[in-house]
Amino acid sequence: MSALNSTIDKVNTSFVIDTLDYLHMGGRCTAMELIIGSMLKIRPVIEVKKDGSLGVKEKISGTRKKALDSMILDFKSKLPGIDLHRVFVTHAYCQKDAEYLKSELLKLAPIEEVCFTTAGATISSHCGPDCIGILFIQK
């Protein structure tokens, strides 16, 4: 059990949300935040914290590619401490973006295996379709 708990503390999970609509419907952002965020094309990067709660890690203004590239840069900044045995790209029906993330991650490091997974009910209900994330374990 202690090995499991120590692994949980090393898991790093973050997701890009494509639209604020689902956060608004779930009561996680106000109507004003939805309107302004939509006008500015805000794409929040959500992280799963150690206690399992979700929090805003970063707010990217602009294109979806810019938001994906932000996650890649975050991965790169943590690279010396990442276990490269297995990295997960989790998505909600955006396979093309998942392939893009995989190719960019493999350019950065000799990852043994990049696994694609479909986002589960909790992440999908909070984030909506087209959310995508990177999950990895730190050394």
TrEMBL record:
Protein name according to UniProt: DegV domain-containing protein
Organism, scientific name: bioreactor metagenome
SUPFAM superfamilies: DAK1/DegV-like
UniProt entry tagged with the keyword Transmembrane helix: no
Record keywords: Lipid-binding
InterPro entries named in the record: DegV, DegV_C, DegV_domain_contain
Pfam families given in the database record: DegV (PF02645)
PROSITE patterns (alphabetical): DEGV
Molecular functions per Gene Ontology: lipid binding
Transmembrane keyword on record: no
UniProt xrefs under Gene3D superfamilies: 3.30.1180.10
